[in-house]
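Annotated sample (chain length 384).
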Amino acid sequence: MKQALFLQFFIFSYLVQASLAVAQVENSQLHQEHAEHAEHVEHAEHAEHAEHAEHAEHEEHAEHEEQAEHASTEMANEHDEEAAHSDEVSDHSQHRSGELGAAISTNHEHHGSQPETGEDEHQHMPEAMDHDAMSESIMQSEGASSLRDPHAYSNGFELTSGPYLLESGSKIGLADETYFTGLWVDRFEYVESHDLDATEFEGHAWIGDSYNRFLLRSEIEIVNDSIETAELDLLHTRAVSPFWNVQFGLRREFGEEDERNWASVGLSGLAPYWFEVDASLFLGENGNSLLDIEAEYDLLFTQRLVMQPRIDIHSYGKTDKEMGRGSGLSTLKTGFRLRYEFDRQLAPYLGYERVIKYGETADLLPVGEDRTDNHWIVGFKFWF
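Output written by the structure step:
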């Protein structure tokens, strides 16, 4: 019984060992197959990559060969063009050399000053020659008498003589060579205040050119149909810059009280920021002096509606009781005029002005007359 059990156990153990050995062999074979498959796949990938690299290298090589062939074709074309240009220059040089030799040979035959050996030398002249040397040789051979006359461009005609000479009255005149005339009336207005009504006029007539002008300027105030004050100036103005004029001359002042004569010098023009300025110094009889400064500015609301603020200052150096003027600051006028320019040469306006008298001039006023006076103004300005 024990022997049978032992035999069965031995057989079972043997079968188990045999089964394990078969399983181990099968497992080893499977492993080897997987390894071989992986190696085959890797080898295929390497082969494919190498094939792609070889193909790319072949394409790059072909592209380089194509570029090299294109470059050599361009170089060959350039070489052909240069050769053609060189042939053209050589032909041109041969042609010019032939002409030069003919000209020099003709000159030698005419003067008879060159021996026969000179002709042999000219026969062996090089085909190409420097253009400067060639021009110089031609000029020397032709002589100075055959050079172009500077008046030849007009075929001998001149502005001062000949068939194209203009008549004396038809000659062209420039602006700075022509005399002009004009009339400028800056203020022609009716003035209304609480104690008087007046008419005032200020303007000038002129004649001259762009640099020098003669002016006849006047300023008149009429009260109750009689001349209250009047100023008449005869001036010469000279332009000293694009915006400024120097002026000097004489003034005659007359009115109900008395008359005065003055000599004047002044400066007028356009100051920065478009302020029109007129400043004058007057020297009169008996040591009298007057400083008159006027300034105005055009403020454009539109191209035709213009506001013009204005200030006028009078200051005297000496008291003149007969004329009712004291030394120092005498009169200050400030105001504005609003005009509408229907035409650039004609513009009506409305305005307001305030007149203030100072110092001794205010003390010399008649009894009951105010130092300050307010004026409403209506008038027009024009020029032509």
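Annotation: Helices lie at 2-111, 116-123, 131-142, 359-363.
Annotation: The chain has two domains: 1-165, 176-383.
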